[in-house]
Amino acid sequence: MLSPVYAAGEVGVFQVIVFGGCAVHIHTQARGSADVDAEVASHGFASKSEIVALLGDDAYVFTDEEGVVQMLELDTSFTTTLAPLHEDYEDRVVRLVSQSSVPNVEVYVASALDVAISKLGRFGDRDQNDIQTLLQLPPCGYR
Fold this sequence. Notes:
alpha/beta; 5 helices; 6 strands; 25% strand; globular
């Protein structure tokens, strides 16, 4: 959805940092998620609200491992201001390789440590399980 907008490079660079259940899945493959919690940033002429609107209108439909049709969509209400985060979490993000050939679209995942920290804000049963799963990963040399 963003490729046509950003392909020419005239509107700047779009960046997203994935948090939440999708980030837990990327790090651990322990569980899936029906929504994408992501911090969205636009470095250029496109506004963040325009980007969120574009992404919010689009959903990815897929069939899970049990053969059930699922839909993955952006959680447009997610914000990093509601979750506890270390001030330098952006220094630990990991860039994901995408299938897009558009270099102006950059997708990152928050580090396992920062995803675990972000889960402390809500701290429900699923969050507690996610934290335990993330903390069982081998250390990655965090500063």
